[in-house]
Amino acid sequence: MDLITRITSHFQDSAQAKLRSIDILAAPIAAAIDVMVGSLRAEGKIMACGNGGSAADAQHFAAELLNRFERERPPLAAVALTTDSSTLTSIGNDYDFSQIFSKQVTGLGRAGDVLLAISTSGGSPNVIAAIDAAHARQVRVVALTGKGGGAMAGKLGPSDVHICVPHTSTARIQEIHLLVLHCLCDGIDHVLLGAKP
Asked: Which of 9, 102, 106, 152 would bridge with 122, disulfide CB 3.0–4.6 Å?
């Protein structure tokens, strides 16, 4: 297979995976928007976490809310729990890597906040620990996963929202995660600001 054919195949696979996901993901995305808007309107905040590419997604999402997405608006309260190297390394060194997010959720989370927990496999121990910490602080969880949701799926309560990409390829899941994050940002702006002029 030459490179052009290989590249074309990636584009086609990605597009098909997105189209196959619409009917499964639209309702939980809308539910997550409602949860997040409810928190923001009540002066809560959204905390986001994940590892590797999911850490980048957490930071991307927080930046879109705190700064802006596609429209001018006041900043929205969001923080990525993946960015403070001193906090991450001190927790990892003094305790355990599995606690790098949960300790932050315990310290920063308040009832009415939301945790966006991102894991392509749904099996990241530190993200699962963050979910447990969120529940202990009465923080609702929006879980963004793939591959059936893994162990994270079993940790979610009735007031949480699970957005589980119906795919097994990490690359395809990550591509759809980015689209989901953009849908969340757009939906939040739409509910708060109304339809685009």
From this structure: 152
Q: State the pTM of this model.
A: 0.97
Angle at 136 between CA 131 and CA 138, to 5 degrees: 90
Give the Å distances, CA to CA, from 80 to 8, 21, 27, 102, 166. 34, 26, 25, 13, 25
Other CB atoms within 10 A of residue 73 CB: 14
| Nearest partner of 195 among 77, 76, 71, judged by Cα | 71
Region 187-197: mean pLDDT is: 90
Domain-wise residue ranges, the chain: 9-193
**Is 90 exceeded by the pLDDT of residue 55?**
yes
94-to-54, 89, 119, 127 alpha-carbon distances in Å: 24, 8, 24, 18
> What sign for the dihedral angle of Cα 102, 57, 117, 192?
positive
Distances (CA, A) of 101 to 8, 12, 76, 106, 136: 38, 36, 21, 9, 14
Cα–Cα distance between 184 and 100 in angstroms, integer?
A: 25
Partners of 164 in the beta sheet?
145
What are the tokens at 98?
């599995």
- Coil vs helix vs strand at 95: coil
Question: Per CATH, is 9-193 categorized as 3.30.465.10?
Answer: no
